[in-house]
Amino acid sequence: MEAGGVADSLLSGACVLFTLVMFSTGLSDLRHMRMTRSVDSVQFLPFLTTDINNLSWLSYGALKGDGTLIFVNATGAVLQTLYISVYLHYCPRKRPVLLQTAALLGVLVLGFGYFWLLVPNPEARLQQLGLFCSTFTISMYLSPLADLAKVIQTKSTQRLSFSLTIATLLTSTSWTLYGFQLRDPYIMAPNIPGILTSFIRLWLFWKYSQEPDRTYPLLQT
């Protein structure tokens, strides 16, 4: 195998490995819910938005014919759906959870209907779907900024997870390089904010002490 082919395979493998490690951080919440038979201190929205993000990128990967995107996001969607199912099982107030799920799934179905029925040109469909996926991923990476502001205000990194920060940094970096390799701005651009926010978190860990705390679930891809 040529050197370029080996490098491509290693980069693809890094994307798969780091992303699956990042997705698996939700297993701590899954274990917590099963042991306590409750959803106390577990956030539901990160599971749902990550699932929607996985399904969107899965469609983009299928349309593009990218095996790495397909495998990672299919696995991620299965994991997030598992987390959602367990959360719903132990949640005492199921109605708000079901309404949030139905609302986001409705938006996803309408989006897919638009892309697949009203955009007949495959190239235009790929570009528009890529733009949608990129925008959604960027919003997920930027959404925890409010938590970072609270860390600065309280001067404590208790609400942050160091292992998740490292996993996010490695995942974002590998996908940025993967997008650069493919010359695909829709893959490359949305992961740059993930790198930036990870470095901000690392700076906060350096500046403020961290008290022992449970690992929080991933909000981003």
UniProtKB/TrEMBL annotation:
Query: What GO terms are given for molecular function?
Result: sugar transmembrane transporter activity
**UniProt keyword terms in alphabetical order:** Cell membrane, Golgi apparatus, Membrane, Repeat, Sugar transport, Transmembrane, Transmembrane helix, Transport
The UniProt entry's coiled-coil ranges are none
Q: Which domain of life is it from?
A: Eukaryota
GO CC field: Golgi membrane; plasma membrane
- Where does the record place it? Cell membrane; Golgi apparatus membrane
Q: Which regions span the lipid bilayer?
A: 6-23, 69-90, 97-117, 160-180, 186-206
Q: Name one Pfam family in it.
A: MtN3_slv
Q: What InterPro entries does the record tag this protein with?
A: SWEET, SWEET_rpt
Keyword Membrane carried by entry? yes
Q: How does it sit in the membrane?
A: Multi-pass membrane protein
Quaternary structure (record): Interacts with TRPV2; the interaction probably occurs intracellularly and depends on TRPV2 N-glycosylation.
UniProt family annotation: Belongs to the SWEET sugar transporter family.
- PANTHER family linked to this entry: RAG1-ACTIVATING PROTEIN 1, SUGAR TRANSPORTER SWEET1
**What is the recorded function of this protein according to its Swiss-Prot or TrEMBL entry?**
Mediates sugar transport across membranes.
Q: What is this protein called?
A: Sugar transporter SWEET
Q: Which organism is it from?
A: Crocuta crocuta (Spotted hyena)
